[in-house]
Design goal:
five-stranded mixed beta sheet; single chain; mainly beta; four-stranded antiparallel beta sheet; 4 helices; elongated
């Protein structure tokens, strides 16, 4: 065989280089998910499977929802989904739906946390597809949460408003309010009212109807409340209104009349505020109940005038420190209850130390719900501010609706 000349060898060498180059290009340009074992950007793209996996949080994304993150598949069924905290590898439990078309975590995700999801699915012919995503949920600095009352499943008094307190200032109040819907089985119209930029309360024109069921639908996930700040909550809360109880304190007579469902059930002697420390007038809602609690005057602007570690049967009426509570120290040098106001603004009822025994205060405590109304009248003091506690009933309906952003 004739040995190729130099020119021929050069041509063959060039051809060989082209062939190697072509092979190299083919290897670099191939589809990473062609085997059905990998898929990026939240979507499986295996050529051999028609199962189309979509992870709601795209690969590399930030600001993912802590509520709505999950996996879905079209033209197939999920066979395995594994979610972990990136870095630690801690597993995040979740559930594949009965039809195999979706998966979601069992619990709300944490804010500002990086997660990884790896999902596999099969199409109708048993061919496998896969998808992966590493993403970070919305951070605390870029999100807001509203703490609310009442809690889900509770039974409350007829005066209980729905009250939200947000952990960040809300500038787009309309957007936030329009994504919280409060309705009652009684058919009463319910309207929201803003107290500043962090508090939003809802109530009907009159007290809730006894026995009604109130539903609060919170759909704030992804709602922009301020520049660069988004909501993260999505849930439905229901509570029940019990019997209607309104108790009226008359400072002139130092008595309290308890009316339940329109019928007077008891009149109790009380001790309201002294002439130096008067009790607010107005409609006040019981917001908390404590069998015993500490009351320290220095926490509400009274210096060291009192510090009682075991005040019995205490029920909060204002956030500034007004309570209706048992009083076991009153009879030390004071006339009987019902004769004179001696408190620092609270409403006192006869009681004994230790919150034991059959006392006036215990009866009222046992027969009161969070959400019951206590009305104070004939006090020389002013009417309580509507945002001092859950006391928006002191606004007229026109003033209340004027504070709505929706």
């Amino acid at each position: 065989m004739r040995t190729p000349d130099i020119a021929t060898r050069r041509v063959l060498g060039a051809c060989a280089a082209l062939v190697v180059g072509a092979l190299t290009l083919t290897a670099c340009g191939g589809d990473a998910s062609a085997t059905g074992e990998d898929g990026k950007n939240g979507k499986g793209s295996a050529r051999n499977s028609s199962a189309d996996i979509v992870i709601s949080a795209k690969d590399g994304s930030t600001g993912a929802s802590i509520n709505a993150t999950g996996v879905k598949v079209g033209d197939g069924r999920l066979t395995d989904v594994r979610m972990t905290v990136a870095g630690s590898g801690q597993a995040v439990p979740g559930t594949i739906s009965a039809d195999g078309h979706s998966w979601k975590p069992k619990q709300q995700l944490e804010r500002g946390t990086k997660y990884r999801i790896a999902a596999t699915a099969k199409d109708g012919e048993g061919r496998t597809a896969a998808a992966n995503s590493i993403f970070t949920t919305v951070s605390s600095s870029n999100s807001f949460i509203g703490t609310y009352t009442p809690d889900n499943g509770t039974t409350v008094g007829a005066g209980m408003p729905v009250s939200f307190t947000f952990d960040k200032s809300i500038t787009d109040r309309k957007a936030v309010q329009s994504h919280i819907a409060v309705s009652s089985s009684s058919g009463q119209q319910v309207v929201g009212h803003w107290f500043g930029d962090r508090r939003l309360d809802f109530r009907p024109q009159e007290y809730w109807k006894a026995g009604s069921r109130v539903t609060m639908k919170i759909d704030l996930d992804g709602v922009q409340g301020a520049s660069g700040v988004y909501g993260v909550q999505k849930k439905t809360v229901t509570f029940t209104v019990g019997r209607s109880q309104v108790s009226t304190v008359d400072v002139n007579t130092q008595t309290m009349t308890v009316v339940r469902d329109g019928r007077t059930v008891k009149t109790l002697p009380i001790s309201a505020g002294s002439p130096q420390h008067t009790t607010y007038n107005g409609q006040m809602v019981i917001s908390e109940k404590f069998v015993q609690t500490r009351m320290n005057g220095s926490t509400v602007g009274f210096g060291g005038e009192y510090d009682i570690s075991d005040v019995p049967h205490a029920m909060r009426l204002t956030s500034s420190g007004t309570f209706i509570h048992g009083n076991y120290w009153y009879n030390k040098g004071n006339p009987p209850f019902g004769r004179e106001g001696t408190s620092h603004g609270c409403v006192g009822l006869a009681d004994v130390q230790g919150a034991q025994g059959d006392t006036t205060a215990k009866w009222f405590y046992d027969n009161s719900l969070v959400g019951d109304v206590v009305v104070v009248k004939n006090s020389p003091d002013k009417t309580v501010a509507p945002d001092n506690g859950l006391n928006g009933w002191n606004l007229s309906w026109s003033d209340w609706t004027a504070g709505s952003a929706a």
